[in-house]
Amino acid sequence: MVVDSVQAADEHWMQLALRLAEQGVYTTQPNPRVGCVLVRQGQLVGQGFHARAGAAHAEVNALHMAGSQAVGATCYVTLEPCCHTGRTPPCLDKLLQAGVTRVVIGALDSNPCVAGQSVSRLEAAGIAVTVGILATESRALNQGFFKRMEQGTPWIRLKLACSLDGKIALANGDSKWITGELAREDVQRWRAQSCAVLTTAQTIRLDNPKMNVRFAEVIDQGSRQRQPVTVILDTQAMLTPDWAVFQQGQQVVLLAGKPYTHVFAEHVSCYQIPVINQHLCLEAAMELLGELEFNEVLVEAGGILAGELWQSNLWDELILYQAPKLMGADARHLMNLPLLTQMDEIPTLNCVDQRRIGCDTRFRFLR
Q1: What does pTM read for this prediction?
Q2: In the chain, what is the greatest distance between 2 CA atoms, to the nearest angstrom?
Q3: Is 266 a catalytic residue?
Q4: Which of 38, 35, 40, 30 is nearest to 20 (CA)?
Q5: Separation between Cα atoms, residue 71 and residue 74, nearest integer Å
């Protein structure tokens, strides 16, 4: 019974720490979202979350609130405390100095600079450590961070909108608007929590989009702290500085198969990556995005890029908005996929969420 009550208490306080961590969902990139709670004799004495890179970490904020009451307290933190100096000093040292007697951790940090070292040092200092309380939830909150640390590439999220008959645009390319206003507002939230939004030069030439977050459509005001980077695949280096995406001020990364002849503004970075069969090497592109410290990348492009990422297994999540409309046989397909001849060749998707967004339905699938 004692173990059960301790487990229940640990999960209760870790749930609070997770809710705190969620407050940084739009702002912490490239850092992970972390929440921390300090509890002494069953009472909350401190809490905090990490707001943005360069700002105080969750543990430091919680310790500041607790003050002297941190002595003898239990620290609940969603991610293993850092033990290295980055933009801020190590949180581990602060916890050791504060006099906490127990640390409960949601998930171990996959960053090679941490990776269990903080746990070892806490235990060596005589502090009790429990690891893995709501670990699944803790990892899910930072799935892009964990993937980048463990595999070197970002979490790739495909975003598509289609009609009931699976079409994304009319034969002439017109696609404004398949979904309703509420669904388009929902997309803004996905943009806001992404490190980068990935599109193609073809999409830029067809729609001339700004590719930024329209903050009036995003409820959480924390998203005003940053714009996601716009990443554009431009195989032939054909884009010029006069397109709207280059006029908004947000950082833009151009991935091309050859050098550009035009000079772009300082907020535009150009990288050359290999070309295979007249297409940019998507594997090389994903590795570069990982090196640029992008945790989550939202792909907003047409069916060609979506199909290439799908067939290459370079996607992790599909967000599909389906509108109650029929667009006809001549309209453009959802994504370009190879011809299948047997039913058992058709993959069954793992749907983890389905909900109404206004008149439309949003599906979330994991690979």
Answers
A1: 0.90
A2: 72
A3: no
A4: 35
A5: 9
